[in-house]
Amino acid sequence: MALEDIINDRVKKLENFQGAGVDPYPAESKRTHFINELVSDFEILSQSQKKVIAVGRIIGLRNQGNIFFADLKDGLAGLTTSSSAKIQFVTKKDDIKDFELYRDNLDIGDFIQVTGTLFITQKGEKSIQTAELKLLAKSLRPLPDQWSGLSDIETKLRKRYLDLLSNEDVKEIFKKKAIFWDTIRNFLKKQKFLEVEMPVFESIPGGADAEPFMTHHNALDQDFYLRISLELPLKKLLVGGYEKVFEIGRIFRNEGIDAEHLQDYTQMEFYAAYQDYKWLMKFVEKMYKLVVKNTTGSLITEWQERQIDWGKKWPKIDYVKIFKEKAGIDLKKATEEQLTAKARELGLNLESGMGKGRIIDLIYKKTVRPTLIQPCFLVNPPVEVEPLAKKLTKDDGRVARIQIVAAGTELGKGFSELNDPIDQRHRFMEQMRLREQGDKEAQRLDEDFLEAISYGMPPAAGFGLSERLFAILMNKPVRETVIFPLMRPKKSE
């Protein structure tokens, strides 16, 4: 039957309910038990012969004339519940009024309230003997086949609600994602971090090398940027006297889409006064291992048919040393011209205005990063790569930064924060020079931030991670681990 015919048939059934005085979309419903409770406590409840009330969606329907059978499923999705439960309800002609109305006009997908007693059928199936039915919501479109589900990935992402209905594995992903963020939040709170919320609109976007989105504030008649990082406002709180702060929030970067990147995504950043990047390594390794264990149930996960062992002690890998080993260039001596020649040799796309740091990063991502499969700390890159981190020493060209790298990608970054306002100004000015040369992702000069840290910011360690880590743990592209990812508008046919 064509979709239009199915919808028309269901609309007629809706009208049949209305004609019989039944509201197909009532506001009120009652429930005495979740279905998983009926199943787990079946013996006690069935022996008591007390009436129970269950609600949910019909996912199976079998009509045998004077009796019909239906499978009912509710949507209990607690973090400790592995999956929603289902139960059969059996409705006989002599047991309810309006039997024919419900028998002839119910469809798979309808929401229903069932009142009755528990019993076991001759086939041994736990069931509800129906004493009363109440329609809660009439479904006007057919659901995906519960066995084959949705096959087209674009349809899955555009109509995630249908994917969730037909695929318990997908439903489990988002339960795990809730556990992922809860574990991080609870870990930080136990360590006396204060959770805060920073502005999404910024006059000057900062804290990362990324192109921002822009919007207009009508009441203020002013353009603002959507934040590309959580960093700079959080560090202002260190100036204000807080010692441990964090935020879990959305950030927005106007960059390309691939398996690891989205334009809007959730990121966590924390800042701890009187700590440095050496402390940071011990702290985040402990946090990551707890997060991986709680989210997946194991410290060994699968990624592209390879095992990632998060449980071992993570090694420290020197950025400059491995860069020389994999790319053949000594960053202590390399000129921008040599780096440019190497990038072109590798077939990398060099955009106008790229400075030394961006070129180094491009070469690193091509030659070094893909080789780092097991979790490790990549430490001490050149200062050109990280304009917000403290130098190892005054005359050293490297900074006190760590990156957590595994599965061939970055899964977190932190460093000893630069709190010298004069040095920070010099670095911002160099970034502005690169912007003037055409680098759209170079950082902007932020006078407000410079003024804030000129009042004095304590030495501190900062760290950030995004939901890319969760995607790697699930062994999926990041947009498949987002419930409703942003999609290109569908072309009208």
Write up what this structure looks like:
This protein is α+β, with helices and mostly antiparallel strands. The protein is 33% helix and 24% strand. The chain has 15 helices and 18 strands. Helix 11 packs parallel to helix 12 and helix 13 packs antiparallel against helix 14. The longest helix has 23 residues. 34% of the residues are buried.
Helical element count? 15
- Percent in helix: 25-40%
Give the termini separation.
Answer: 21 Å
Query: Order of strands across the biggest sheet?
Result: 6-10-11-18-17-16-15-14
**What share of residues are in beta strands?**
15-25%
Major pleated sheet = 8 strands, mixed
Give the tally of β-strands: 18
Rg, Å, rounded: 29 Å
Q: Which stretches are poorly predicted, pLDDT < 50 over at least 5 residues?
A: 77-82
Overall outline:
elongated
Overall pLDDT confidence: 92
Structural class: alpha+beta
Break the fold down into its secondary structure elements and pairings:
Elements lengths: L2 H17 L15 H6 L1 H7 L3 E12 L3 E7 L12 E7 L6 H7 L5 E10 L5 E12 L15 H6 L1 H7 L1 H23 L3 E2 L5 E2 L11 E4 L4 E5 L4 H9 L4 E9 L11 E10 L3 H20 L3 E4 L2 E4 L6 E3 H9 L8 H10 L10 H12 L8 E4 L21 E6 L2 E8 L4 H16 L10 H8 L5 E7 L1 H7 L19
Parallel strand pairs: 3-5, 6-10, 14-15
Antiparallel strand pairs: 1-2, 1-4, 2-3, 4-5, 7-9, 8-9, 10-11, 11-18, 12-13, 15-16, 16-17, 17-18
In short:
The radius of gyration is 29 Å and the shape is elongated. It contains 15 helices and 18 strands. Residues 77-82 have low confidence and may be disordered.
